[in-house]
Design a protein that fits this description.
The protein is mainly alpha-helical. The protein folds into 2 domains: 92 residues, Endonuclease Iii, domain 2; 100 residues, Endonuclease III, domain 1 (Orthogonal Bundle), CATH 1.10.340.30. 54% of the residues lie in helices and 0% in strands. The longest helix is centred in the middle third of the chain and has 18 residues. The radius of gyration is 18 Å and the shape is elongated. The protein binds iron/sulfur cluster. The site of iron/sulfur cluster (SF4) has 14 residues, from α9 and α12.
């Protein structure tokens, strides 16, 4: 196989996934920007399906960042208990909304830097908000993204910040956000952590792992996903 540049690999991967998964929506259900922020915080080490079961009652009780900011953490804990790590998550949600109210006029901020200044929010969530709420070029580096882009041959590292930089250079900025949503779908359905179904994969023709399955086993340990 001819060695591809990352830009060539990016173009091929974007097109293949677009054809395979024409819809590219976030699987977390939300109506308002702060709801996506909270749902994403809840999804750490929990499935999106579980989060979607929990959030309707939560968002019914607390309708605005101001209401979350004024909430008793123990009451939030009760509503999110089944998502796991609920004490930390409840504290972060209330503190995050206090910061939104105190520092950003009650609006979810619109830059990576400001978003990552919120308690409990890292670059992954900040990128998700930038892409899905503000429709800016974004690269959401989660475990699916790390695993699949490594197998495809974009990189052989695990540092999320460096991977984001590599993918930002490789991908069309207009496509990168949807590309990452599609990687999640592909990671759940085909390129699973333990046993990727390579023979039925839409990207096998240019995937380094498919060409040589042993290639990454030493440099990049198999990553387990929170929703597998
Ligand atoms: S060919 Fe296999 S390893 Fe490569 S992206 Fe597809 S499922 Fe994943």
């Amino acid at each position: 196989m001819k060695e591809l540049t990352n830009k060539e690999r990016g173009r091929l991967a974007v097109e293949a996934l677009k054809e395979e998964y024409p819809g590219a929506v976030c699987s977390l259900i939300y109506k308002k920007p702060h709801e996506l922020l909270i749902a994403t915080r809840l999804s750490a080490q929990c499935t999106d399906a579980r989060v979607n079961i929990v959030t309707p009652a939560l968002f019914e009780k607390y309708k605005t960042p101001e209401e979350f900011a004024a909430a008793d953490v123990a009451d939030v804990e009760e509503l999110i208990k089944s998502c796991g790590l609920y004490k930390t998550k409840a504290r972060d949600i209330v503190l995050m909304c206090r910061s939104i109210c105190d520092n950003f006029g009650g609006e979810v901020p619109d830059t990576i830097e400001k978003l990552t200044s919120l308690p409990g929010i890292g670059r992954k969530t900040a990128n998700l908000i930038m892409g899905d709420v503000y429709h800016q070029p974004a690269v959401v580096v989660d475990t699916h993204c790390i695993r699949i882009t490594s197998r495809l041959g974009f990189h052989d590292i695990r540092d999320a910040v460096k991977i984001e930089k590599i993918l930002r250079s490789a991908l069309d900025p207009n496509e990168s956000n949807d590309f990452c949503h599609r990687l999640v779908l592909h990671g759940r359905a085909v390129c699973t952590a333990r046993s990727p179904k390579c023979s039925e994969c839409c990207m096998k023709d240019f995937c380094k792992y498919f060409e040589n399955p042993g290639i990454h086993t030493g440099a990049v340990p198999v990553l387990l996903d929170r929703d597998e």
